[in-house]
Specification:
Layout: H1 3-12, H2 17-26, H3 33-40, H4 44-47, H5 55-68, H6 76-97, H7 102-106, H8 113-121, H9 124-146
Helix pairs in contact: 1-2, 1-9, 2-3, 2-5, 2-9, 5-6, 5-9, 6-9
Length: 149
C-alpha cells in the first residue's frame, strides 16, 4: 500500500489528519509510529479543534522537521532549508486546495461546538479531509524526492 492510501486508511480508522500524515513517514525517518501518534495528536481539528492550520498540513510540517530540521542551534543551513521546504509545501497545498486553514477547507469553524457537531453530522471529515490527507502525503513525497538530506 502506498503512503497516501496508508494515511487515508489510518485517518478512516480513527487517527486525526495530522497523525495519519505524520505516521505514514515516521518509520522511514527512524521514529516509532506509536511515538509519532502521540506527537501529532494535539494538532487534530486545526490544532486542538480551534480550526486554524489544517491538521494534514501540520502532519506534513512535522515530517519536514523530522527529515530536514535543525538538530543543533548552530546549523543555520538546516533551519533555513526546513523553512524553505515549509513554504514550498504550503504553496503547493494552497494551489491544490485554495487554503491551508481548517475552517476555510471544511467550511466549518471547529472551535464552535455547534459547527463541529454539524461538520461531524455532515460527514465533512470523511468527504473532504481524507482528500487533504492524500494531497499532503503526495506533496510530501514530491518534495522528499526533489531534496536529499
Amino acid at each position: 500500500m502506498d503512503k497516501a492510501n496508508h494515511a487515508v486508511a489510518c485517518f478512516n480508522n480513527g487517527c486525526n489528519c495530522s497523525q495519519a500524515v505524520f505516521t505514514a513517514f515516521c518509520e522511514d525517518l527512524g521514529l516509532d509510529k506509536k511515538l509519532g501518534l502521540k506527537i501529532a495528536c494535539p494538532f487534530g481539528g486545526g490544532m486542538g479543534h480551534i480550526g486554524e492550520t489544517c491538521r494534514a498540513v501540520t502532519g506534513a510540517l512535522l515530517v519536514l522537521g523530522l527529515k530536514y530540521g535543525q538538530d543543533n542551534v548552530e546549523d543555520k543551513h538546516a533551519k533555513e532549508l526546513d523553512y524553505l521546504l515549509v513554504k514550498d509545501f504550503t504553496s503547493r497545498f494552497k494551489k491544490r486546495n485554495g487554503s491551508i486553514h481548517c475552517t476555510e477547507l471544511t467550511g466549518y469553524d471547529l472551535s464552535v461546538e455547534d459547527q463541529l457537531n454539524t461538520a461531524r453530522q455532515m460527514d465533512v471529515f470523511s468527504t473532504k479531509c481524507s482528500n487533504y490527507v492524500s494531497d499532503a502525503v503526495n506533496i510530501l513525497e514530491e518534495i522528499l524526492s526533489e531534496h536529499t538530506a
